[in-house]
From TrEMBL:
This is Flavodoxin family protein. GO terms for cellular component: cytosol. It comes from Pseudolabrys taiwanensis. InterPro entries: Flavodoxin_fold (IPR003680), Flavoprotein-like_sf (IPR029039), NAD(P)H_dehydrogenase_qn (IPR051545). It comes from the Bacteria.
Amino acid sequence: MHALLVYAHPEPTSFTAALKDTASETIRGAGHSVEISDLYAEGFNPVAGRHDFLTTHDPQRFHYQNEQGHAHKEGGFAPDLAREQARFAKADLVIWLYPIWWGGVPAILKGWFDRVMAYGFAYSDGRRYDSGFFRDKLGMLCLTTGGTEQRFSATGVYGTIDQVLWPTQRLMVEYMGLKALEPFVAYGAPRVDQAGREAYLAAWRARLLDVLAESASSDAPKTVPVP
């Protein structure tokens, strides 16, 4: 299995970074390969525009989706987008790691979805959800929150984590046809002590090993009993 970690945090000593490092070490330790898109460190530009394309579909009126579809057909994406699309296409498992900010993903990660997951490449008419392009890929969100688990509950002020993550889980990951795994959430990351952080990392490591084991089992050739 080959995994892509799309990591969106500006601070290398953050707990999100620790989750990223743990994922990389765990997956590699299990005999698989890993590539990391470190969006901040690589200076990824989240702002969409004509600079996304080496080709032009309509010089008179800029329609972003039309330009994406044309670039996909003509091989006309800018180098940074072509690089990220190649990384994504190569992966069997994609993990997005980020802190939840204002109820969603950081702007740099939203821009990654806007620019990289382009029309023609990631979806098209009639190719979404169960008919999406990437039904052979696994996708998982791994995020940290500032709020406690109680705040992300049915009685909490933010509502359940499923409600909060719906735009990302359902309308982004599942939209592209990936098999979306249950998100891993480290609640109240700035508030927990070292023991609590170590417990989160241990749980994250165990979760990843389960995912890898389940994937290996599902990919194993089925034996046919000899009569």
